[in-house]
């Protein structure tokens, strides 16, 4: 009987062991992320193997069974809770570091924010934290100089394309980038986007003591001081390099902040090159890093926690210590971030590597994705940029070019259901447009006057300081893509500064960039400012373009020209001498440069007035628009000019539209005139109303080169309604002149009626 009882107890213990061991093992492996202690089955196994026993054995067995059941219930409770990130399994002070994770684990990850195809071991069934619909996402970017200001636009486009949340950009910029980007965002007028700027020059003293060999220069170190730079009430921010392209909603990355545990304050992706392993070449000695180190092209910063941890003191002490042996940084802020993490691994939350697919040469970036849907952030972190070596570089390049040439006007999308800050400029614009009569046959003309065109100033590098003698002159002109071929010729004829407004689409702007970068003539000139006004609407906004170019003039005087004209050789120096001779600084004068034209595409450009007169007599040249619009330049008095040796004054007449040099403070062009007709006439009328003297220069000239008719002049000639609307706008302008300048302006209406 006793043997039978012992046999039953053995059978019961063995059965329990066989039942619970596989079950608990399966549960443990499937959960993986929970700190559940393994069930100690050794007592049961001992009980089953003991040949003898007493009354206490049964009680002990029952206690163990109840303990196992309690453990089982605990497991079920854990399973019912929301899942935690794998990093949550680690104590805050015992982070294993990136060397303990395989690269395949980095390639897998969670799909934050929304459900997308999973990669590797991630599960579509696991619910991820979702960013609130109207939560503002903060993005910080360090941007300095002309090229970086151009590159960052592609990053911004990729973010705007995918985003569904309000955005707040924090730009740490030099004066150049602030001028460019503030103008761009002001004219872009994207809803639910706020932009703030922070002066990088004020931060230079914080990092200038760090020797840095990286091509980014001192600006490559400024991410280190973001805790001091950004507002003290800002708790978290995503920090991005300018050479980043997003392939997903940035809210997914913002959601990763919910996964930070313990003292984790930095979200980073492992560096995908062998740089920090120190085996790239003989005697290669990188800064200290945890395993392969981390790349700082994409950073998640918990600013409030970093401030509490005295981040400023932490990175400074680390940098000072390492610089004693390293002497300088090679990868700017990235070296210092990695040195800090090496000493304090608990600070970092390692992001899946698809959040920073690094496309420099010889990286392991291909392990970060298995399919297009896996890609989230692409980082062109090689100096070669688009020419980098990568098996899938064509795909990445096409994705980048998609945003590069994408029409930015299409990104002016409202975020419905989210309250946004009041934009007074946008409100005033909408109010003005609502007051226009949409049934007016000239509605489109009137609307164009108030259209805000996205504007990118200084699209290419610009470097020029006006001369100290206060006589410097800038040539001002505007053009579209079909006049691009005139740029090199003008640069050869005019050696002084030039301010150009180009009316282009996003794709055309990139074509222009490639054209300019491939031109030795244009690349040799640092004193040409190219300002892109992006296409919108059906009319060519000629006077807006002129105003944009005029507003960027930094010299005391400007020569108001058109892109189809080639100024005579030496005109720049001749105009500067005329400034002194005619006392331009103390008088209101408009110096007239006589205009001529040729019908020949190949012209032997006259190098002197005598040679020009000879060609004029032979019929190679004509006075400008002599055959079709004599009134436009008749007051110049070409007959007198032929023999003149000194400047002479002429009177304003109806439809007079000469090309003039004026002081920089002259009135702007009237924006109501778009396309063809009356755009210069109205401006000259305004100068006359403000009592400018028109003085013709006896030894100056310019020649109009032949070209195909513009689209707008074709519309003017073929569309009766176009001509009717132009006449209406002209009459309204004259009435405005009468109200502004009183009795003296009546002559403009009288002269027009008599003409």
Automatic annotation (TrEMBL):
Localization per Swiss-Prot or TrEMBL: Golgi apparatus membrane
GO molecular function, a single term: glucuronosyltransferase activity
Signal peptide coordinates: none
GO cellular-component term (any): Golgi membrane
Protein's UniProt keywords contain Transferase: yes
Pathways involved: Protein modification; protein glycosylation
A biological process from GO: protein O-linked glycosylation via mannose
Lipid bilayer topology: Single-pass type II membrane protein
CDD domains noted in UniProt: GT8_LARGE_C
Keyword annotations from UniProtKB, A to Z: Glycoprotein, Glycosyltransferase, Golgi apparatus, Membrane, Multifunctional enzyme, Signal-anchor, Transferase, Transmembrane, Transmembrane helix
InterPro entries noted in UniProt: Glyco_trans_8, Nucleotide-diphossugar_trans, Xyl/GlcA_transferase
Catalysed reactions, semicolon-separated: 3-O-{(1->[3)-alpha-D-Xyl-(1->3)-beta-D-GlcA-(1->](n)-4)-beta-D-Xyl-(1->4)-Rib-ol-P-Rib-ol-P-3-beta-D-GalNAc-(1->3)-beta-D-GlcNAc-(1->4)-O-6-P-alpha-D-Man}-L-Thr-[protein] + UDP-alpha-D-glucuronate = 3-O-{beta-D-GlcA-(1->[3)-alpha-D-Xyl-(1->3)-beta-D-GlcA-(1->](n)-4)-beta-D-Xyl-(1->4)-Rib-ol-P-Rib-ol-P-3-beta-D-GalNAc-(1->3)-beta-D-GlcNAc-(1->4)-O-6-P-alpha-D-Man}-L-Thr-[protein] + UDP + H(+); 3-O-[beta-D-GlcA-(1->3)-beta-D-Xyl-(1->4)-Rib-ol-P-Rib-ol-P-3-beta-D-GalNAc-(1->3)-beta-D-GlcNAc-(1->4)-(O-6-P-alpha-D-Man)]-Thr-[protein] + UDP-alpha-D-xylose = 3-O-[alpha-D-Xyl-(1->3)-beta-D-GlcA-(1->4)-beta-D-Xyl-(1->4)-Rib-ol-P-Rib-ol-P-3-beta-D-GalNAc-(1->3)-beta-D-GlcNAc-(1->4)-(O-6-P-alpha-D-Man)]-Thr-[protein] + UDP + H(+); 3-O-{beta-D-GlcA-(1->[3)-alpha-D-Xyl-(1->3)-beta-D-GlcA-(1->](n)-4)-beta-D-Xyl-(1->4)-Rib-ol-P-Rib-ol-P-3-beta-D-GalNAc-(1->3)-beta-D-GlcNAc-(1->4)-O-6-P-alpha-D-Man}-L-Thr-[protein] + UDP-alpha-D-xylose = 3-O-{(1->[3)-alpha-D-Xyl-(1->3)-beta-D-GlcA-(1->](n+1)-4)-beta-D-Xyl-(1->4)-Rib-ol-P-Rib-ol-P-3-beta-D-GalNAc-(1->3)-beta-D-GlcNAc-(1->4)-O-6-P-alpha-D-Man}-L-Thr-[protein] + UDP + H(+)
Pfam families assigned: Glyco_transf_49 (PF13896), Glyco_transf_8 (PF01501)
Keyword presence, Glycosyltransferase: yes
Region (Disordered): 73-121
Predominant place of localization: Golgi
Similarity comment: In the N-terminal section; belongs to the glycosyltransferase 8 family. In the C-terminal section; belongs to the glycosyltransferase 49 family.
Protein name (database record): Xylosyl- and glucuronyltransferase LARGE1
Species for this entry: Betta splendens
């Amino acid at each position: 009987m006793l043997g039978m009882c012992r046999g039953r107890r053995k059978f019961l213990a063995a059965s329990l062991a066989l039942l619970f061991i596989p079950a608990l093992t399966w549960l443990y492996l499937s959960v993986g992320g929970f700190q559940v202690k393994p069930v100690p089955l050794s007592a049961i196994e001992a009980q089953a193997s003991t040949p003898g026993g007493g009354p206490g054995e049964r009680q002990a067995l029952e206690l163990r069974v109840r303990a196992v059941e309690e453990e089982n219930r605990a497991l079920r409770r854990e399973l019912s809770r929301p899942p935690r990130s794998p990093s949550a399994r680690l104590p805050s002070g015992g982070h294993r570091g990136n060397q303990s994770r395989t690269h395949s684990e980095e390639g897998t990850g969670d799909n934050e924010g929304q459900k997308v195809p999973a990669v590797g071991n991630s599960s579509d069934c696991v619910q991820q934290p979702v960013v609130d619909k109207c939560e503002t996402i903060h993005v910080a970017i360090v941007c300095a100089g002309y090229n970086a200001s151009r590159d960052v636009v592609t990053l911004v486009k990729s973010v705007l394309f995918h985003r569904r949340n309000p955005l707040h950009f924090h730009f740490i910029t030099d004066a150049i980038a602030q001028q460019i980007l503030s103008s761009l965002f002001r004219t872009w007028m994207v809803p639910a986007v706020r932009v703030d700027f922070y002066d990088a020059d004020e931060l230079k003293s914080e990092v200038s003591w760090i020797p840095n060999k990286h091509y980014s220069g001192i600006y490559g170190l400024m991410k280190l001081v973001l805790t001091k730079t950004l507002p003290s009430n800002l708790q978290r921010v995503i920090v991005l390099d300018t050479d980043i392209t997003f392939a997903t909603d940035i809210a997914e990355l913002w959601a990763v902040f919910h996964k930070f545990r313990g003292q984790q304050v930095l979200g980073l992706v492992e560096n995908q090159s062998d740089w920090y392993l120190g085996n790239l070449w003989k005697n290669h000695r990188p800064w200290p890093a945890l395993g392969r180190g981390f790349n700082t092209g994409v950073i998640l910063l918990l600013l409030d926690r970093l401030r509490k941890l005295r981040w400023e003191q932490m990175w400074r002490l680390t940098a000072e210590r390492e610089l004693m042996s390293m002497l300088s940084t090679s990868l700017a802020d990235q070296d210092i971030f990695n040195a800090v993490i090496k000493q304090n691994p608990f600070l970092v939350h390692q992001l899946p590597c698809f959040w920073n697919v690094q496309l420099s040469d010889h990286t392991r970036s291909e392990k970060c994705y298995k399919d297009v849907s896996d890609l989230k952030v692409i980082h062109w972190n090689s100096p070669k940029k688009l020419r980098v070596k990568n098996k899938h570089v064509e795909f990445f390049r096409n994705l980048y070019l998609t945003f590069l040439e994408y029409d930015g006007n299409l990104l002016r999308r409202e975020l419905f259901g989210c309250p946004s800050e009041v934009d007074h400029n946008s409100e005033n614009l909408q109010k003005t447009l609502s007051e226009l009569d949409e049934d007016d046959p000239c509605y489109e003309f009137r609307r164009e006057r108030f259209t805000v065109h996205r504007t990118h100033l200084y699209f290419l590098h610009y470097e020029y300081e006006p001369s100290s003698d206060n006589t410097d002159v800038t040539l001002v002109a505007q053009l579209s893509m079909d006049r691009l071929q005139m740029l090199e010729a003008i640069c050869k004829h005019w050696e002084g500064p030039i301010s150009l407004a180009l009316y282009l689409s996003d794709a055309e702007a990139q074509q222009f960039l490639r054209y300019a970068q491939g031109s030795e003539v244009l690349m040799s000139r640092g004193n040409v400012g190219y300002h892109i006004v992006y296409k919108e609407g059906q009319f060519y906004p000629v006077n807006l373009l002129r105003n944009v170019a005029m507003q960027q003039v930094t010299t005391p005087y400007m020569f108001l020209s058109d892109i189809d004209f080639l100024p005579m050789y030496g005109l720049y120096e001749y105009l500067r001498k005329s400034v002194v001779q005619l006392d331009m600084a103390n008088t209101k004068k408009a110096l007239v440069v006589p205009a001529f034209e040729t019908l020949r595409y190949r012209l032997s450009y006259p190098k002197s007035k005598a040679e020009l007169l000879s060609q004029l007599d032979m019929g190679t040249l004509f006075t400008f628009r002599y055959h079709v619009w004599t009134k436009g330049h008749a007051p110049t008095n070409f007959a007198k000019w032929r023999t003149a040796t000194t400047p002479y004054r002429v009177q304003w007449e109806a439809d007079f539209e000469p090309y003039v040099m004026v002081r920089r403070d002259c009135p702007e062009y009237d924006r109501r005139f778009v396309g063809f007709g009356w755009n210069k006439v109205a401006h000259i009328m305004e100068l006359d109303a403000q009592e400018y003297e028109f003085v013709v220069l006896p030894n100056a000239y310019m020649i109009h080169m032949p070209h195909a008719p513009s689209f707008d002049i074709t519309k003017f000639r073929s569309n009766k309604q176009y001509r009717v609307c132009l006449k209406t706008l002209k009459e309204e302008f004259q009435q405005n002149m009468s109200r502004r300048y009183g009795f003296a302006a009546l002559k403009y209406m009288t002269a027009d009626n008599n003409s």
